[in-house]
Amino acid sequence: MMDDIAAITTFLGWCTVINIGFYCVMAVTLTVFKNTIKTLHSKITGVAIAKLDELYFQYLGHYKLAIIMLSLTPYLALRIMNS
User: Which residues, 6 or more positions from 51, have their beta carbon under 8 angstroms from its beta carbon?
Assistant: First the structure.
């Protein structure tokens, strides 16, 4: 049983690291290549360029909350249970 919990804890830890890494890459990409990405997304989706800043902010905010709720919090709870 403890091996299963240890495996799940390790899995959630790596999920958290990967998700935070992906979040950071997306935040940097959206900052550095802002105009290029906005133009591309506007052409693909038909959303006005002025609206995209708000949508990017919402996307990053929702993704950050998902990381905290679905990866980080369960990982920390399992770590606390095993200590």
Answer: none
Structure tokens at 27: 């935040």
By mean pLDDT, which of 4-8, 63-67, 68-72 is the weakest? 4-8
> Rounded CA gap, 70 and 61, in Å?
14
**What sections of the chain are H helices per DSSP?**
2-32, 34-45, 49-67, 73-82
User: CB under 8 Å, gap of 24 or more: what pairs does 50-55 form?
Assistant: none
How far does CA 19 lie from the centroid of its chain? 5
The pLDDT-based confidence of 71 (bands split at 50, 70, 90) is very high
Q: State yes or no: pLDDT of 2 exceeds 80.
A: no
